[in-house]
């Protein structure tokens, strides 16, 4: 999970309240001390930390709290609200959201220092929008770094996104203008322009940025910065904002960097909205940022809306009702199972998805296991691909388990017979428990509502996840810490594992966007 350590420390500090017999000023101060320590360790600026502390104290006046009020819940809510305030730039991210329109082309220009992850992020941003139905394309206006052209070209080929660049033209403004013109003529609706970086903020970089901006007249300028620099992000973000009209910020390298929290709060303090976070080197390690959802996740409450958004991204809308209905009724064919596996692969790393589920702890997935589970799913898909049409559409497990069939499938897919057996076992688990899980969550109804509110309360979510966990293929279950790991998890979800934040339950049911 993003900022896992900070999240753990905050949750621990809040949970400590539940172990005190009475919550008085002293207990509150102790809890606040731990919260402040965690934030300072994440490199959040001292002034901001002390502001947050005072803010919580103001919101929670222990002496004046009416008797009978649940003090712990009042404190939890105050912590949540103050963290949201600290990470809120004051600018509504919706204002900078790209709007799709008939015959409309949006031009987005990326700026940032060298090595900040700008080029990687351009492709992630293009890929993200491609999955949402846009027709993105990439223009390389970075003539400063020799390898930039090839890097962006390679990335765009991998993501199957059109690319424009030049080995011979040395003026970035000219390349940018030519690329934008070409793609406008081709009817692309999102043109992303990657610009040069420099090792440090210098006049030449800012001048070049202004020239490219004048040439392409961007609808949005996105500043990309490296999250590992912590609170130093404030000066950097401000310098870019003062030199070119920065509309939004993307913070990269939020995976595994202790200082990420500092970077987030520092950028918000410059009043620039953060719209995405980079959480790894791969194309799908990219998450949209929304303050409340982020804080919910930070405090172990998951991000159900984000998870639903991901599911919606990968399962075509017209296929959703049919797929959900089939699974709910327990009529899942191997063909549907293959669609599901493919969707899981597209959704990105398992650990990222897990961290969006309330109460799930990213620690449950041992490091490096994302790759193993993806590999296993790919093998299952290979086996399914060697099935006949009749087998693909069958829901008759007995027929699929015939020995001669297992051997034929193993030969046809080049996999071991044991792997075919494992796939059939996984299929059995899925059909049984996925159906129960969807019924418990009333998903067929909720799928229809997804554009609006998500009507799943935390208890339903726990039930759903309990069933879903049982539906996991045995190998995958093992990688998640086995049955013991899951039992711990479920216990945690029922008790303080949701960060002891059960009282904030209603807040999870907000709007999607
Ligand atoms: N761990 C991690 N690495 C990242 C992330 N984003 C980018 N990187 C890596 O950071 C390094 C620099 O990324 P680039 O995209 O080449 O940086 P750049 O800002 O375009 O550099 P210039 O083109 O020289 O300006 C590469 O090794 C990327 O793989 C991220 O979110 N997490």
Automatic annotation (TrEMBL):
It is found in: Cytoplasm; Endoplasmic reticulum. Keywords: Cytoplasm, Endoplasmic reticulum, GTP-binding, Hydrolase, Nucleotide-binding, Ribonucleoprotein, RNA-binding, Signal recognition particle. The keyword Hydrolase applies. Its main location: cytoplasm. The keyword Metal-binding does not apply. SUPFAM superfamilies: Domain of the SRP/SRP receptor G-proteins (SSF47364), P-loop containing nucleoside triphosphate hydrolases (SSF52540), Signal peptide-binding domain (SSF47446). InterPro entries: AAA+_ATPase (IPR003593), P-loop_NTPase (IPR027417), Signal_recog_part_SRP54_M_sf (IPR036891), Signal_recog_particl_SRP54_hlx (IPR013822), Signal_recog_particle_SRP54_M (IPR004125), SRP/SRP_N (IPR036225), SRP54 (IPR022941), SRP54_euk (IPR006325). GO terms for cellular component: cytosol; endoplasmic reticulum; signal recognition particle, endoplasmic reticulum targeting. PANTHER family: SIGNAL RECOGNITION PARTICLE 54K PROTEIN SRP54, SIGNAL RECOGNITION PARTICLE SUBUNIT SRP54. This is Signal recognition particle 54 kDa protein.
């Amino acid at each position: 999970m993003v900022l896992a350590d900070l999240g753990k420390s905050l949750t621990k500090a809040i949970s400590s309240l539940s172990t005190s017999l009475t919550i008085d000023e002293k207990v509150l101060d102790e809890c606040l001390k731990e919260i402040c320590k965690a934030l300072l360790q994440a490199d959040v600026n001292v002034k901001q930390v002390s502001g947050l502390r005072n803010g919580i104290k103001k919101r929670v006046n222990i002496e004046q709290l009416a008797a009978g009020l649940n003090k712990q819940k009042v404190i939890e809510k105050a912590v949540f609200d103050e963290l949201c305030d600290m990470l809120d730039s004051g600018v509504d991210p919706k204002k900078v959201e790209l709007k799709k329109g008939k015959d409309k082309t949006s031009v987005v220009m990326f700026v940032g220092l060298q090595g900040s992850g700008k080029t990687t992020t351009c492709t992630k941003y293009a890929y993200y929008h491609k999955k949402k139905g846009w027709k993105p394309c990439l223009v390389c206006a970075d003539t400063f770094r020799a390898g930039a052209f090839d890097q962006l070209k390679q990335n765009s080929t991998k993501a199957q996104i059109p690319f424009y660049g030049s080995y011979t033209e040395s003026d970035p403004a000219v390349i940018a203008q030519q690329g934008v013109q070409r793609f406008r003529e081709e009817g692309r609706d999102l043109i992303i322009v990657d610009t040069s970086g420099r090792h440090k903020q210098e006049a030449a970089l800012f001048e070049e940025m202004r020239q490219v901006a004048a040439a392409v007249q961007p609808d949005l300028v996105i500043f990309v910065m490296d999250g590992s620099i912590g609170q130093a992000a404030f000066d950097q973000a401000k310098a870019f904002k003062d030199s070119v009209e920065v509309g939004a910020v993307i913070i990269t390298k939020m995976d595994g960097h202790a200082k990420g929290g500092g970077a987030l709060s520092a950028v918000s303090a410059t009043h620039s909205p953060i719209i995405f976070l980079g959480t790894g080197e791969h194309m799908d390690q990219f998450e949209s940022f929304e303050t409340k959802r982020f804080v919910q996740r930070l405090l172990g409450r998951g991000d159900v809306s984000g998870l639903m958004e991901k599911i919606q991204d990968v399962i075509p809308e017209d296929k959703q009702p049919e797929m959900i209905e089939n699974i709910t009724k327990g009529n899942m064919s191997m063909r549907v199972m293959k669609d599901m596996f493919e969707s899981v692969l597209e959704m990105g790393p398992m650990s990222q998805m897990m961290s969006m589920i309330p109460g799930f702890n990213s620690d449950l997935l041992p490091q490096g296991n994302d790759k193993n589970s993806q590999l296993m799913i790919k093998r299952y898909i290979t086996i399914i691909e060697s099935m006949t049409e009749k087998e693909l559409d069958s829901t008759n497990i007995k027929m699929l388990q015939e020995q001669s069939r297992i051997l034929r499938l193993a030969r046809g897919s080049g996999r071991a017979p044991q792997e075919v057996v494992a796939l059939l076992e996984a299929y059995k688990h899925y059909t049984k428990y996925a159906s129960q899980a969807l019924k418990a969550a009333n998903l067929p109804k909720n799928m229809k509502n997804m554009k609006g509110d998500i009507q799943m309360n935390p208890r339903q979510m726990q039930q759903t996840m309990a069933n879903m966990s049982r539906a996991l293929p045995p190998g995958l279950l093992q990688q998640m810490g086995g049955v013991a790991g899951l039992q711990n998890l479920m216990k945690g979800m029922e008790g303080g594992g949701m960060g002891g934040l059960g009282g904030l339950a209603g807040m999870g049911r907000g709007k999607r966007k």
